[in-house]
Design goal:
Strands 1-2 form a two-stranded antiparallel sheet. The N terminus is likely disordered. It is mostly helical. The chain has one domain.
């Protein structure tokens, strides 16, 4: 099951749905803050009081750590879908994802990932999905090389640490600060291709999901308990340690030279990929603990995970209404935090209501109509 795919409840595996539903809260936190500050990473550049705590927690656990979860789940879902459908269906479905992404980015939010999913899905279907285990072992070597690279970057950053007065600043996104909807639309048309091209290297993260799906890691978590535990501990450990310098800077506790801040930002970004793998493993362990059936209190979260495409698009509508200068024009840390929690909660309850009635999300229905004809 991918970020976007829906099956009948009896055929679903709990861990992917639980992961997607829960991590949509992290996506909401990141994107709401991005819109509230009209720039990335969406952190208050001059935090005070509890705002320092929020910045620290966002940098440590959310920023650059939520999207890898969905990338892994996307790769996992490609394999599951390939077991039931022909390559022709996969190509068609991923091509429509690119169309969905273009529409989403043009109309609502430049930071779209759907188009990138579609492009990566097309490439992965062509080159990876039906290849042998020997080919898929390459991805483990790639992650090993990346780990060495992350360590080298961290060592260079620490050894080359220079004091200064530079803190975290937001790189502006013109579409988020445009004075009218038309101006924002024109800005997004220019921003989306650049953003999409910048995130395409996440195919390595998607490939890790493909590797895991071929071994049915989440379908059979009891057989992979040791792997899940090690991945959760190591992945989240690397992510947390790698985020620490940047998180302290974002909290205003530490200041350094511009070069040092940029170096720590790179370490923060690359170690976030391990956080994604760690989170996925953690949800796999939770699903194992629940015996493959979520507690009743988590039913809305699971339902949202089954309708994550609709939930994701709904969020973008809300950010436009709440934060755009030509709409409600809210801003700041607390507005972003409150909006993220409220929008995620409402979307989970709405998804649960659809689940009770046995209905898919509207976006899922539309994608299936185009993909399966």
């Amino acid at each position: 099951m991918t970020v976007l795919e829906h099956h009948q409840p009896s055929t679903r595996v709990l861990a992917p749905d639980l992961a997607r539903g829960a991590m949509l809260l992290f996506i909401a936190l990141a994107n709401a803050a991005n819109c509230a500050f009209a720039g990335q990473p969406g952190l208050d550049p001059a935090p005070h009081g509890l705002g320092r705590v929020v910045n620290f927690l966002m940098a440590t656990f959310v920023d650059a750590r939520a999207y890898p979860v969905f990338a892994i789940m996307f790769g996992y879902g490609l394999v599951q879908l390939s077991r039931r459908q022909s390559d022709r269906v996969l190509y068609r479905r991923n091509a429509w994802l690119v169309v969905f992404g273009l529409a989403h980015a043009t109309l609502l939010y430049f930071g779209d990932f759907l188009g990138a999913y579609g492009i990566v899905g097309l490439v992965a279907t062509l080159l990876l999905v039906r290849r042998s285990d020997k080919v898929h072992r390459i991805v483990l070597w790639l992650w090993g090389i990346q780990t060495v690279n992350a360590v080298i970057l961290a060592v260079i950053g620490v050894l080359g640490w220079q004091g200064g007065t530079t803190g975290i600043s937001n790189a502006p996104n013109p579409s988020l600060d445009a004075p009218s909807y038309w101006d924002s639309l024109l800005d997004r048309v220019a921003e989306w291709p650049v953003h999409t091209a910048s995130v395409l290297p996440f195919i390595v993260i998607v490939w890790l999901g493909i590797w895991a799906a071929r071994r049915r890691v989440l379908e059979e978590p009891s057989r992979h308990r040791r792997l899940l535990r090690r991945t959760a501990w190591v992945g989240l450990g690397i992510s947390t340690v790698g985020a620490a310098p940047y998180a302290l800077m974002s909290a205003g506790v530490v200041h350094a030279s511009t070069g040092t801040v940029e170096a720590m930002a790179r370490v923060h970004a690359i170690t976030g990929e391990y956080g994604g793998a760690g989170y996925v493993a953690l949800f796999g362990l939770l699903a194992l603990r629940f015996g493959g059936r979520a507690p009743r209190i988590l039913a809305p979260v699971v339902a949202l995970g089954q309708r994550s495409l609709s939930g994701y698009l709904l969020q973008s509508v809300c950010w436009l209404v709440l934060f755009a200068p030509f709409a409600l024009n809210l801003g700041g840390t607390w507005a972003a935090l409150a909006a993220a929690v409220v929008v995620w909660t409402v979307s989970a309850l709405a998804a649960h209501a659809l689940s009770v009635r046995g209905q898919r999300g509207p976006a899922e229905v539309l994608l299936r109509k185009f993909a399966y004809r």
